[in-house]
């Protein structure tokens, strides 16, 4: 997305905030220009980002394409009939596919240390990243709410099984994140030291970016995280309560399945999104302090914050690899569809062998009943 060349003007050295990129609606930390005399992490970024992006691209592309294959299979459409849960998961994997397809451009950018893909592509990179991240956050939050209702209010859940409403909700989410990300399309490429660079933030925008970060932190992360956490806590208490009452195995299985989805969503938040948002906030505060007071802290601290920003940005991008797990293990009707269409080992059991096995099983059951 964004990178900065090794050559930095004296003005940039006295005003570190000049390196902040244009992102939705706050700068992405991996693109901050840390090319100052003593606190540069340029080599660290050029090493970590290409490896991380290409790994996420490989795993995410395979996982999401396999998921998309099952969704587009006509037999799966007939069997699953696109329930609200599967509709949400479909939109989630489409968002992830957009994200993983942008990663090779980012990896090439850091490897070459200049932008070679044109102005329009530069504008799209940050736009796609934040659409994916915050779109995924809201899709995951809604999934948790739907499964929570399935556990606590099963009859209400049955009444809510409306595919049209699910599609409308997904369209609303897409519109919100797409419109909110429009400012990213305003910043294109620029030339620095005879090299084409991508998406810088102008000094006049710094104050606005800090303010927007607080709003996005609450609306884009804290609020959905609270919703998912509450769903998990209440679902866990409800399942513990059910253990004290006798229920059939089918009902217990459905409740555990719904609770598993909430747990996986919560783990994705804890692993991918929480570190990114926490470190991003610390990063912005540190860079603002540098802008106001200079390098009061040691370079060790500044480098640590910037390296943490790089790592957590990779973790946030990695959600594209983890989201397909929801479909593979929790998606409605997926397991039965997989068993039905996955080639099994050739069996040498004949009809005569089947009859013998049935006879053995019946005799074994008779012996067990005699022992009781």
Task: Please provide a written account of the structure.
The chain is mainly alpha-helical and 372 residues long. The chain has 13 helices and 2 strands. It has a single domain (10-371), classed as Rhopdopsin 7-helix transmembrane proteins. The protein has helices spanning 10-14, 42-72, 74-80, 84-112, 119-152, 154-159, 163-180, 206-243, 249-293, 299-317, 319-330, 334-341, 351-371; strands at 189-192, 195-198.
Mean pLDDT across the residues is: 73
CATH H level, superfamily name: Rhodopsin 7-helix transmembrane proteins
End-to-end distance, in Å?
70 Å
Strand content: under 5%
Which regions have little confidence, pLDDT < 50, spanning 5+ residues?
1-37, 345-351, 353-372
Instruction: Output the CATH class name.
Output: Mainly Alpha
Overall strand count: 2
Fill in the keyword field for this structure.
disordered C terminus; 2 strands; mainly alpha; 372 residues; single chain; two-stranded antiparallel ribbon; 73% helix; disordered N terminus; 2% strand; Rhopdopsin 7-helix transmembrane proteins
Task: Give a topology summary.
Blueprint (H helix, E strand, L loop, with lengths): L9 H5 L27 H31 L1 H7 L3 H29 L6 H34 L1 H6 L3 H18 L8 E4 L2 E4 L7 H38 L5 H45 L5 H19 L1 H12 L3 H8 L9 H21 L1
Antiparallel strand pairs: 1-2
Provide a brief overview of the structure:
This protein is mostly helical. The chain has a single domain, classed as Rhopdopsin 7-helix transmembrane proteins (Up-down Bundle). It has helices at 10-14, 42-72, 74-80, 84-112, 119-152, 154-159, 163-180, 206-243, 249-293, 299-317, 319-330, 334-341, 351-371, and strands at residues 189-192, 195-198.
């Amino acid at each position: 997305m964004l990178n900065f060349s090794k050559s930095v003007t004296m003005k940039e050295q006295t005003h570190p905030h000049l390196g902040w990129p244009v992102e939705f609606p706050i700068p992405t930390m991996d693109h901050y220009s840390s090319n100052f005399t003593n606190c540069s992490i340029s080599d660290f970024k050029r090493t970590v980002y290409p490896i991380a992006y290409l790994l996420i691209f490989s795993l995410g592309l395979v996982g999401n394409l396999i998921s998309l294959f099952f969704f587009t299979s006509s037999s799966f459409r007939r069997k699953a009939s696109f329930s609200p849960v599967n509709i949400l998961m479909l939109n989630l994997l489409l968002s992830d596919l957009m994200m993983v397809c942008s990663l090779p451009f980012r990896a090439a950018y850091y490897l070459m240390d200049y932008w070679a893909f044109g102005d329009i592509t530069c504008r799209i990179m940050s736009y796609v990243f934040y659409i994916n991240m915050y779109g995924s956050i809201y899709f995951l939050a809604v999934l948790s709410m739907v499964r929570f209702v399935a556990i606590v209010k099963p009859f209400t859940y049955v009444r809510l099984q409306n595919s049209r409403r699910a599609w409308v909700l997904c369209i609303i989410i897409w519109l919100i994140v797409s419109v909110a990300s429009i400012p990213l399309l305003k910043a294109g490429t620029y030339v620095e030291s005879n090299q084409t660079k991508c998406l810088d933030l102008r000094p006049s925008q710094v104050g606005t970016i800090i303010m927007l970060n607080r709003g996005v932190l609450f609306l884009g992360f804290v609020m959905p995280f609270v919703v998912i956490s509450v769903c998990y806590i209440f679902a866990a208490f409800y399942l513990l309560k059910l253990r004290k009452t006798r229920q059939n195995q089918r009902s217990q299985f459905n409740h555990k399945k719904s609770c598993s989805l909430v747990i996986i969503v919560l783990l994705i938040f804890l692993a991918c999104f929480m570190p990114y948002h926490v470190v991003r906030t610390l990063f912005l505060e540190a860079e603002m302090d540098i802008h106001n007071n200079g390098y009061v802290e040691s370079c060790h601290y500044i480098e640590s914050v910037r390296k943490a920003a790089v790592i957590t940005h990779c973790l946030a991008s990695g959600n594209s690899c983890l989201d397909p797990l929801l479909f593979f293990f929790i998606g409605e009707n997926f397991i039965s569809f997989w068993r039905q269409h996955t080639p099994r080992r050739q069996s040498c059991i004949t009809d005569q062998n089947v009859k013998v096995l049935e006879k053995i099983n019946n005799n074994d059951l008779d012996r067990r009943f005699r022992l009781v």
